[in-house]
Amino acid sequence: MATRVSATLLLLIFFCTGIALAQDSLRRSLVDFDCVACPPADALARLSRQTGVNIAFNTTIFQDCPPVSLAVRQEPLETVVGKIAACARPSYRWNADQVVLFRKIERYTLSGYIKDAETGERLIGAGVRVRGAGAVTNEFGFFSMELEGGGYRVVVTCLGYQSDALLLDLDSERMLIFDLKPNTALPEVVISAPTTAESNGGQTGGQHNLPFSATHGVPMPGGEADLLRMAAFQPGVQTGVDGLGGLHVRGGNADQNLFLLDDVPVYNPSHALGLFSVYNPATISSARLWKGDFPARYGGRTASVIDVRTRDGNLHKRNVELSAGLFAASATVEGPIKRDTSSFLISGRATYLGPWIDFFSKRENLLAFSGDNITYRFYDANVKLNYLFSEKSRVYLSYYQGGDVFRNRFAQRFDNLEGRLTDQYSLGSEWGNSIAALRWNYLLKNNLFTNTTVRFSRFFYESQLTLLSTFLGASGRESLVANYGQIYQTLIEDLSLKTDFSYFPKNNLDVRWGFSYTLHAFQPGALSVNFLVPGQSPVTIDSLSNSLRNNERLGADESELYAEVDWRFGKHWSLEAGLNFASFQVRNNVFRAPQPRLRLQFGGNTDWRAWAGYHRSAQFLHQIGSFNISLPFELWVPTTARVPPEHVWQASAGVGLRRSGWNVQVEGYYKRLERVLAFLSTSTALFTGGAEDASGWEDRIAAGTGLAYGLEAIVEKQFSSTSVNLVYAWSRSERQFPEINSGRVFPFRFDRRHDFKITVEQRLAPWLDITLAWVYATGNPITLSGVKYQHHTPNGEIERNVFVYTDVNGYRLPPYHRLDAALNAHFGAGRFQHAVQLGVYNAYNRFNPFFLYVDSGSGTNAKAIQYTLLPFVPSFRYSLKF
Amino acid sequence: MPKPAILTLILALLSAFGCVREADIDLPDLPTRIVALSHFTVGKPIQVEVSLSQKLTDAGDPVVPFNADVSIAVGGQFLDKLFRVTGDDGRFFWQSRDLVQVGTEYSLGVRIGGFETVEAVSYAPKHIPISEMRIDTGQMRVTDLDDGRRVLRVPLEIQLATLPNQRRYFAFALRHEIESFEVINGEPIPDEYYDVQTKFLADGRTLALVYDTPEQVVLINENYWGDGRAALVLDAIVPFDPTHERPRRIFVEWRTLSEEFYRYHLSLARQGNNLPLNDPDALYNNIIGGLGNFSGYSVSEKSVVIPNTF
Questions:
Q1: DSSP string spanning A123-139?
Q2: Residues of A whose CB is below 8 A from B22
Q3: How many helices (H) and strands (E) does chain A have?
Q4: A697 touches B at CB < 8 Å
Q5: Which of A94, A216, B157, B213 is the most exposed, having the fewest neighbouring CB atoms within 10 Å of its CB?
Q6: How many CB pairs under 8 A join A and B?
Q7: pLDDT tens-digit readout, B173-206
Q8: Cβ neighbours, 10 Å, residue B58
C-alpha cells in the first residue's frame, strides 16, 4: 500500500514539474510583434494568431484602455503580452499551451471633493459618475465610492457648472479634488424655473432641491429675493396670503417644519411676519426641501425639512456683492484669510421698510393714529469662517444674528364738554434669532466621513405696551386717569452636540449614522398687566422686565440616535431605509419615539421613475398662539405630561418621466396626524383686571387628530430659449378635536382644494430674460358668523352681541390668484458684474383677501371689511459684484 | 398675549403695502331662527327670553315675538305654560309658575307661527357648596394712594366640600361690603352699608383659566382642577376711603353648573372679542331648531369677615 502511494506521488511530482517546465518555456519563447494604435484586445488577438499560442481574455477588461503601439524584437512572450495588456493590469495564468488574462478583483475607494474652481467652495449635490457606478457629494462636498481596480473615465457634473471628465487608472485608494468651472453661459437669472423638482442628485416627489439662485430671477415683492417664497412654489407647500402665516406643507402646521441653517434649527424663519425669510440669498450655498420621506438623520418635526447651507467664502480671491431693492439692501464680502487654506464670508442685510410704513400709515390713517411715530426694521448678519487643516480635516464656524424691531407711539384724544381725555400709547416689539455652529469635518478613512457640530440656537420675542391716560378738564387742570403697562417675553434656547458618520462600504451602499444631544431652555412667555390707580407710583417697563427675567426657565433635554442606509440594487432599484430614535426628557418625564423611514425607488438610468415611501415622525416642541396664522410671538413650549408629543405618519408614491426635454411627475400622499395640538385661546383674561402669565398654557392646549391627502403634479418643459414649469396640487386637510367645533371634523385653516402655479421664462437675449409667474389657489377656509343675537345681563343691559359661528372654518374666502412678472438684465464690464431686475408683483392688482373682518358696528349696519395685503407692488433690484 | 402690538404691526404692514376695502361677501345664509335664553336655578321660576336672530349686517334691536308660546315639560309631561312678564327694564320674558327643583330635567318648548318649534333640555345640578373660605391674614396688604384712599389686598382661599371626578363645572362672583360711617365726637358711627363688585388678582395659571361671562359670574375652566387643586386661590382687591369707609365682608356667590351652562359660556369666551385673525370656536347651542341656551345651575353664597388689621 505504501509503495503504491509513493509511486503515485512520484508520478504527480513528475507531471507537475513537466507542466511547470512547459509553462516556463512558453513564457520565455521569443517573439517579434508590431502594432500601431491597436486596441489591446485586437493586439492580443493578432499576437495569438501570430504565435499560435492561445491567449484567452474577456474583452471587457480592456473597455476603457487606449490603443497601444508596439514594435518589439525577440522579446519574451510574457513581456509582450504584459506590454499590450498593461492598461488593464490583468492577472495571468500560464498553461502549457495557452495564457489566460483575467482581472483579479481588487477593490479600491475612490473619494474626494468637488469644488468651485473660482471660489474654492465645495459643491453640494454634485454628481460623480464612472462606469456602472455613481455618487453624489454630501453637505460638505465629499463623495466616496468603492470600485474595482482598473481604468475609468470619471465624469463630474453639477448644476450651473461645466462638466469635467478625467481618465483614471485606479490601482490604489485614491482621493481626487475636482475643480468645476461655473457655467458662464448660464447666468444666475436663467437657471431653470423655480419649481425645478429635480436637479442634482435626482430628487423626486417629496424631495426638492430649491434652486436658490433662481430666486434672483423670480419677481418678488420689492425685488427682494426670498428662499421661502421659492419653497412655496413647490406643489404641496402653501403659505398664508402673500407669505404671511408661515409655511404649511401637506396639511401640516407651521411649527411642524424643521428649518435648518447650517444644520442648526431656526425657530423663526421669517421677517416682517412672513413677508421675507431670514435666509439672505447672498449667503446660500444650497437648499433642500423634504415634504415627506425625509431621511432618518432629520428628526424633531413632522411635516417637512428645509435644510439650508451657507457658502464658505472664496478661498482664492476677495469678492464683494452689493444689492439694493425697494425695501432692503445687502452687502457681502468674502475672500481668503490665507489663500487656499482659510476663508471668510461676512454678509449683512437691512431693511428700509420703516419709512414706507410710516408714510403710508399716515396717509391711510388706518388706526386713526394721531401723531403716529412708527418705526420698523429687520436685519440679518451672517459670518462664516473656515480653516482647512488638510484635505482630511476642516473646521467651520458660522454665526447668524437677525431680528425685527417695531416701535409705535401714538395718541388718541376724546373731547367732550367737560374736557379732553388723552390716551398716549407706546407699543414696541422685538424678536430675532441667534444661531451659531462650530463644525469639524474629518475623513477617518477614504470611505468614512465624520462631521461633529456644536450648535446654538436662540429665539426670543419681547413686546411692551404702555398707556398713559390723562384728562384735561375745562378748568385747565390735568389729572391722571390711568397708567398701564405690560410686557411679554418668550424665549427658546438650544445648545446641542451632533455627530454624523457617513460610510461608503460599496459603490451601491451608503450608510449614515449619528447622534445628537440637545439641551433646551424655554421661557414660555410672561405677561404682566398693571392697572395703575391714580396716585400710585408709576410702574415702569424696566421694573416689569426685571421681574420677568427672574422667572424660572423650563429645561428639557432631547437625544436622537439614527441610522440609515441607501442601497442601490439591481439595475434600477434603490432602497433608503432608516430609523430615528428620539428621547425627550422634561420634568422627570421621559418620552421616546422610534421613527422608521422607508423609501423604495425605481429608476436608475431609465426615463421612467417610480417611488414609494413611508415615514413616521414625532415632535416634542410645539408653537402655540391665539391667532390663526403663525406669528413670531407665539410660544415655543415643550412636550410635558399634560402636553403630549405629536405623532404623524405619511405614505406616498409617485411616478415620473423625463424624455425629450419633458419632465413629468405625479405623486400622491396620505398623511395621518395621529396627535396634533391646538391652543384654545380666549381674550378675556386680559380684562379681568389682573396679571396674566403663560403658566396656564398646559391647560389651554387641546390634543386632536388630523388627516391630509392629496395629489401633486409637476410638468416641466425646456425649449431652446423658453422654459415652462407647471405645478398643480389637489389636496384636503382636516382636523378634529374633542374640545373644538363640538368635536366635529373641520377643515384645516390652510386647507386648499386646488393649488396651481405656472412659471414661464423666456430668454430675450443672452443678457436679458423675462419671467412670468401666475398663481391660483382655492380660498382659505375661515370661521365666519352668519347671524347674531343679543345676550343681556341679568340686570337687562346688552352684555354683548353673540355671533353665531356655526362651523369652524366653514366659510371659504374667494380664490387667491395673481400674476407676477420680472425683467432681468445682467451685464459685465471688466470685473464688475451688474444685475438689474424690474418687475411687478400682483400685476393685475387682484385684491386677494388677507382676512375678512365683520365690523358689527354700533348702531349702524355691520360691514364686511376685506383686508388685502399686497396689491400691485412694483419691484426693483440692482446688484453689483466685483 | 400682546395682541395690541402685533395687530398694530399687521395693520401697519397693511397700510404700507396693502389696502382695506369694504367687500360684498356672501355671508353664511342662515334663516332667521328663534332665540331662547334662560339660565334657571333652584327655588326660582324659570324665566325665558325669546327673540329672533338677526343677520349679521342688521342694525337695531332684535324682534321680540310677543305671541310666543313657551312651555315647560318634565319627563315628557306638560308642566307649565309660561306667561309673559315685563321686567323693570321694560324687556319681556316668559316666566313659569312652578319653581325649579334640583335634579329635575326640564324640557323647554317655544312655538312661534312661521318658525320651526324649538326645544331644549337641562336641569339644575346638585350643588357642591363651599366648605370653607379662609383669609390669609398674614398676607393681607394695604397700599396707600396719593389721593388718600387705600387698596386692601385680601388673599382668599375657597375650598369646596367635595370635588367630583368629572363635570367640574363651577362659576363664582365676588363682592364686598363697605361700611360707610360718620365720625361724630371722634367716634365712627355707621351710616350705611353697600356692596361693591370685587376685582381680583391671581397667579397666571388661574387667570388663564377663568372667564368673564355675560351672567356677571366668572366661569372656571374644568382644567383648573386638573392640577391636583381642590381650592380656588385669589386675591380680592378692595379699595376704600379710610376717612369714612371700612371694608367689612367678602361675599362669594358659588354656582354649580349644568353642562349646558358651562359649555355655552365657555364657547362664548372662546369667541374672543371678534378680533381679526382670531379663530373663534363654534358656539355651543342646545336649542334644537333654534339658537341660544337653556341651562340650569345651583347656587349658594358664603361670606367671610375681613379682619380689621389694617
A1: PTT-EEEETTEEEE--T
A2: 863-866
A3: 6, 53
A4: yes
A5: B157
A6: 335
A7: 999 999 999 888 888 888 889 998 888 877 767 8
A8: 16
**Spatial separation of the C-alpha atoms in residues A391 and A409, rounded to whole Å:** 57
The closest of A777, A726, A727, A774 to A750, measured between CA atoms, is A777
Which set of grid coordinates corresponds to residue A163?
A: 462638466
Select from B53, B201, B205 the Cβ nearest to the Cβ of A789: B53
Q: Are A231 and A215 in contact (CB under 8 A)?
A: no
For residue A666, give the C-alpha cell. Answer: 405625479
pLDDT one digit per residue (tens) for chain B, 310 residues:
344 555 566 666 655 555 666 666 666 667 889 999 999 999 999 999 999 988 877 777 788 888 899 999 998 888 889 999 887 777 788 999 999 999 999 999 999 988 889 999 999 999 999 999 999 988 888 877 666 778 888 999 999 888 888 889 999 999 999 999 988 888 888 888 999 888 887 776 787 788 888 888 999 988 888 767 889 998 888 888 888 899 999 999 999 999 999 999 988 887 765 555 667 777 889 999 999 999 999 999 999 999 887 6
Whether the CB-CB separation of A208 and A200 falls below 8 Å is answered with: no
Minimal Cβ distance to B18: which of A486, A865, A871 = A871
Contact criterion met (CB < 8 Å) for B27 and A854: yes
Determine the distance in angstroms separating the CA of B185 from the nearest CA of chain A, rounded to an integer: 31
Q: Do A859 and B146 touch (CB under 8 A)?
A: no
B143 Cβ contact list (under 8 Å, min separation 6): A536, B150, B151, B153
CB-CB neighbors (< 8 A) of A842 in chain B: none
User: Residues 148 to 177 of A: which have CB under 8 A from any B CB?
Assistant: none
CB A502 within 8 A of CB A546: no
Going from the C-alpha of A464 to that of each of A3, A106, A529, A608, A849, the distances in angstroms are: 110, 70, 10, 58, 29
The C-alpha cell 375681613 sits at B306
Closest CA to A242 of B225, B13, B250, B240: B13
The DSSP bridge pattern shows strands A873-881 and A68-76 to be unpaired
- Give the largest CA-CA distance in chain B: 73
